[in-house]
Design a protein that fits this description.
The protein is of the alpha/beta class. The chain is 48% helix and 20% strand. The chain contains 10 helices and 7 strands. Strands 3-2-1-4-5-7-6 form a 7-stranded mixed beta sheet, with helices on both faces. It binds S-adenosylmethionine.
Length: 225
């Protein structure tokens, strides 16, 4: 189970290089996956959306291209929110960024039509409590997360090739442990059907589906009422 204080400090530390790292490590594919997450959420015509574990705000800014009245982005790392706000000023955006922990949100029941969390749920200390909180504040939930490819050959190639990035990450962030954490947490985190079971037992959502991306390197989960 990830330790919240360790995770918060790690993301505070890597925040200035976070966007560059994302592009390097995913060779830009994270942008395609994130766009798909926003598209799926927008199919439900939400008027108010909450993006949790927003980081520097990629998903929240993605929603601005759609007709949405209220967009809130939250993250428990103050440095991530500071960097999201810098992007907000640069883009002249209306997103409201706040520091908040996804396991303890101050919003009313079903205040949001849709909630999203992209590459964040794997990092929360209390997974079931966080999922429950997301289902309390939103009518529909959309999750993007790394997973394990179902094909054993692809799985081996994928995790071995990830290790090649180790020197780049250590050099850029001075937090080589962050990279160990990325690989270990992706390998260990439940994906596909197993993660749908966790959503089912932790929330009040009735319809839960998933779509593997790139053979299961990442997954999009949709949970609806
Ligand atoms: C890998 S980043 C993802 C950022 C962004 N969503 C993206 O896709 O680029 C994970 C983020 O989750 C945040 N986070 C981890 N645990 C959290 C929690 N319990 N509550 C709120 N944010 C959390 C971290 O601070 C970090 O910004």
């Amino acid at each position: 189970m990830p330790n919240a204080q360790y995770i918060k400090t790690m993301f505070d530390d890597i925040s200035p290089k976070y966007d560059l790292l994302n592009d390097l490590l995913s060779v830009g594919t994270h942008r395609i996956w994130k766009r798909k997450l926003v598209e799926e959420a927008c199919k439900t015509n939400p008027k108010a959306v909450l993006d949790c574990a927003t980081g520097t705000g990629d998903i929240a800014f993605g929603f601005e291209e759609n007709k949405i009245d209220r967009i809130v982005g939250c993250d428990f790392s103050p440095v991530m929110i500071e960097n999201a706000n810098k992007r907000k000023d640069k883009n002249k955006s209306d997103v409201n960024f706040i520091v908040a922990d996804v396991s303890n949100l101050s919003f009313k029941d079903q205040e949001f039509d849709a909630a999203t969390i992209s590459f964040g749920i794997r990092n929360v200390e209390n997974l079931e409590k966080s999922l429950n909180e997301l289902s309390r504040v939103s009518k529909n939930l959309f999750i993007l997360e790394f997973g394990t490819p179902e094909n054993t050959f692809l799985k081996k190639i994928y995790f071995n090739s990830l290790k090649l990035y180790f020197p780049v990450l250590s050099l850029l962030t001075k937090r080589s442990d962050a990279y160990d954490y990325l690989i270990k947490s992706s390998e260990e985190f439940p994906s596909g059907k197993n993660f749908c079971e966790i959503i089912k037992r932790s929330t009040t959502f009735k319809n839960i589906n998933y779509t593997p991306l790139f053979g299961g390197i990442a997954y999009i989960y949709e949970a609806k009422r």
